[in-house]
Amino acid sequence: MDYTPIRISTIFPKRALSFELYIFFKEHFLKYIEVGRALEEEHLDKLKKQKIARFYIRDTDEGNYQNFLDEVLNQTIDDPSVEMGDKVNFAEGNACTAVEDMKKDPGSKQSYHNTKRAAKTLRKLIADNPDALKNFYGRKETAETDLLIKHCLNVSALVVGVAKVCDLGEDDQDALSIAGLLHDLGISRYNEEEQQLFLKVYKTMTLEEKKIYQQHPAMAAELLKKNPFVDPIIVDLILSHEEKISGEGYPEKKTKLTLPQEILSLCNCYDKRVTVLGMSPKDALKVVQVDELGNYNLELINKFKKQLKDNGIVI
Ligand SMILES: [Fe+2]
Ligand SMILES: [Fe+2]
User: Fold this and answer.
1) CATH, range 78-310
2) Could you tell me the distance, in angstroms and rounded to a whole number, from the CA of residue 268 to the centre of ligand 2?
3) Cα 216 to averaged position of ligand 1 atoms, centre (Å)
């Protein structure tokens, strides 16, 4: 029998399961939850104590697991009686899985489908639940997740919030959320030494380093463009995520951006400072307001600022 690992956080608690869950313990797969039963809080506490990070499902149950994720997205995420913490965990677990899988195999149709679902889950969470953005953005990060993935998740959450206050519709919000998750996919194609550039402040890079780093939007776009199932709008958003209206961005030094392009670029440059460079949200906002003046429309910067304050991310 073959088993597939899945993130524990993607198993929404207190929902009866249509598939069996296994854990890998002392070199064996042990059945942990039977069909028809649900994951309960006490299970989660036990798993944490035993430091078990993954569930396993039987390969033949993959379809049932996918249906379960769809059901939670459609029935639970906008249910106001369900705990916010559970929703945030679920959204994060799905988004992490999606970004990790796309890093491993950017040509996988199933992984892209999962990315779209993860983005929609995040969009519904943020758009339909007051306080969700604050909860998601301020969540305690899982230690196993690397900075690149954390950054992609945070950008994806931020773009949805900003798109909403800019009155963009659900399709634009979904597209931005997907692009947020995948925008820095190109970084994972660099060699180990080049990947370190991600941790550097762009302004402090040497000319040679800048030349290398400037390639990452096109690298991601090239990878995704090859797949007929990827919407060209997503490729375009990713290609332009480092562009600024001042013409000081890259790779094309554009001077005109669509509103979704500008939102993605702004959220990216803000969150890079918070999640990757370790600035406080308040300081990052201050720096963006000063350093990025002229790089984005003032009206958008003001809406962005209001969004951060209204959501309690910046006090
Ligand atoms: Fe980037
Ligand atoms: Fe980024």
Assistant:
1) 1.10.3210.10
2) 5
3) 7
Residue type at 295 in one-letter notation = N
CA–centroid distance, 149 to ligand 2, in Å, is 10
How confident is the prediction along the chain (315 residues), in pLDDT tens digits per residue? Answer: 799 999 999 999 999 999 999 999 889 999 999 999 999 989 988 988 888 889 999 999 999 999 999 999 999 998 989 999 999 999 999 999 999 999 999 999 999 999 999 999 999 999 888 889 999 987 766 655 689 999 999 999 999 999 999 999 999 999 999 999 999 999 999 999 999 999 999 999 999 999 999 999 999 999 999 999 999 999 999 999 999 999 999 999 999 999 999 999 999 999 999 999 999 999 999 999 999 999 999 999 999 999 999 999 998
3-state secondary structure of 245: coil
Distances (CA, A) of 92 to 125, 216, 240, 274, 290: 11, 24, 25, 18, 32
Q: How far apart are the first and last CA of the chain?
A: 53
Model-wide pTM > 0.85: yes
Query: 45 alpha carbon to ligand 2 midpoint, in Å?
Result: 34
Task: Enumerate the domain spans of the chain.
Answer: 1-75, 78-310
Distance 74 CA to ligand 2 centre (A): 29
